[in-house]
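Session log. Operator J.P. requested a structure for one protein chain; no other inputs attached. Running the standard single-chain path with token output.
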Amino acid sequence: MRRPTAPLAALALALALTGCGAKVSDDDSDAAHDRRPAKGSSHYPVTVENCGTRTTYDKPPARVVTNDVGITEIMFALGLEDRMAGYVMPDDKGDLDGVPWKAAYGKVPWLGKKSLTREIALDARADLVFAGWNYGFGEDNGLTPAALKKLGIGSYVLTESCRNGRDGARGVMPPLEALYTDLTTLGKIFDVEDRADALVKKYKKQVADAAAKAPAPADRPSVFLYDDGRDKPFTSGKYAGPHDIITKAGGDHVMKDLKDSWTTVGWETVVARDPDVIIINDYGDASAAQKKKFLMSYAPLAGVSAVKHHRIYVMDYADLVESPRNPAAVSDLARYLRGVRAAG
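Structure written below.
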């Protein structure tokens, strides 16, 4: 999940296992071509910064374990499935059959449907764990970069989940910049910089094309992201994926002043800000239909524009957390919001 908290510990400076270079491709779904570093390659050692911590890699990680769908698909988008020992992911993350990385999902072992643990990492002989604060890492479960370092396992922290020093709040940069940063940094770690650069260029163009069609700020429909919660809604602040997705798609994110990533607000705030559109994050025990039924029947929301006009838009979980699906999600939402604006 994505409810991160607490200071980032130092990453491991050297990884225990060796391995071949990653395989990458010219497009997300194309066949990968070989990118093994030449013997004696001058690429390594390479030093990168991740969530404020500098780490030096003497060789590319060879047995990476990832947590959750967005993080796993970042590796797949870079063509790094051959560098993976497995992934941990609940089975409520939507239909994976239509994604460009279906073949990669078939190659990489699914290590568990519940929480990532130190035991899973050890059993997989991981040399690197790629997760985020409360996307796998957390003090409550004892899985932290510091704990893994003691076991000789390195860590890479999802940039969307970086802590910013404000009482456990997350977020140090705009969400799409976090995606581009992770792609670029991982490209350096695994010596697939050309692949990373191509993806970033492609995604930026996709987002720019959608943003170019957005209405002027004064004409933008206001949008609230509803993750879940009955007593209080769990939503996105300015540092989680939905903020950039909504904004670049031509919407006005009503929680843009929240300097956090994923967080809880009060229903009274939602009512006061009166969003034109509510986006439902489709995941978890409650279905999108159940969430919509709750929103449409919850008395305090009866006067909210989105509820009155039945403007409820459903998006997949993997579209909304940091992932290579974010740019396409911007394009899809932009089409919907243009329709809302055209309808008045």
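Operator note: Residues 111 and 123 are 10 Å apart (CA to CA).
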